[in-house]
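Question: I have long wanted to understand how a fold can be written as tokens. Here is the record:
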Amino acid sequence: MSGSSKRPPAKRTRVGKYEMGRTLGEGSFAKVKFARDTVTGDLAAIKILDRDKVLRHKMVEQIKREISTMKLIKHPNVVEIIEVMASKTKIYIVLEFVNGGELFDKIAQQGRLKEDEARRYFQQLINAVDYCHSRGVYHRDLKPENLILDGNGMLKVSDFGLSALSPQIGGDGLLHTACGTPNYVAPEVISDKGYDGASADVWSCGVILFVLMAGYLPFDDPNLMNLYRRICKADFACPPWFSSAARKLIGRILDPNPLTRIRIAEILEDEWFKKSYKPPCFEQDDEDVNLDDVDAAFSNSKECLVTERKERPESMNAFELISRSREFSLENLFEKQNGLVKRETRFTSQRPANEIVSKIEEAAKPLGFNVHKHNYKMKLKGDKNGRKGQLSVATEVFEVAPSLHVVELRKTGGDTLEFHKFYQSFSSGLKDIVWKTEETSEQQR
């Protein structure tokens, strides 16, 4: 092979001392990327917010207050904020990296959990929520998707105070912004008459406990107004396998009246809750927390800004490749496992990155999707409203080797089952670029 045909090593995105990798999650306001500290080698997750959006929505002081508060929270069941940085266009919140996956995926794969296992996760959730409430931080979007597990199976609450940014508390001492996922929100949040953040979070914890033990939602209806009516009336029924003690506790948590709903202090004394209970073990750090990085990130000083550069598709190293698989087999990485409907999927291709991007665009448009391209990332947005709004899909091309790419597709909006149906149709238009091993080809004959 001639020297002119060789390509230089792929350059990766770098922000400050952090080398950025794949996207871990994405929402309307921010995205989270995998990262590595090039000085210490430690892994991290970096939440990236658009500076213009923050300014446009006049949220600077709000976000500064939330981040500063979160830096004070060091609890084994809450994802820790490490530091904050900013560039001319972005704000970067560096978070502890937790690699055990979402609790949502565990339920999706196993179905309902045994009562003892569900109780253990619920105990850790209540520990985290109680600690954060003691510091004036309310999540307001608690759901299994925001609960992640570390390598030892310990639960950690993610995005506490960041996924649902709390507004100023009104003169009546109540919050007045309706937010969160409809199936998990408390009746008083829906009513828009002001609500107590602590009590609303307790309701969401109760819905989560029900889902862990039942394997399905207590309140679910394709019609949003019907769903809200059921929530406001606490119209649900526990399945027969719930113990009487669990039924009693869930009934006290899912009380539509926030004034009579059980409080966390009472949950901690409940007999069902206390079974095999292990209090969180950690050191209370009362030392002053340095907030200089928070102030610098929101200042206009050029000396405090970091730069972000990316010139080619991100490369994916061996560690990242293996970490995305439940086993070391690459076939297991790229194939759907055991019929489980996931909110993301990926495939490999030996075609050039530009050709892959063009083929994705060609396959998406006939299915009614608008395509927005930026380098080797694409956003696909459906033009029809589904069960949970418009289906949105983010795609990204990663370089594993000069002649091998991994293409990742993630649902960023809409219904998971609709995403699965979309991918079945979408993937048929990608057959020419998807790489199949000889073994896979033989199996399909």
Confidence is low (pLDDT under 50) at residues 1-9, 163-180, 325-341, 438-445. Residues 99 and 323 are 8 Å apart (CA to CA).
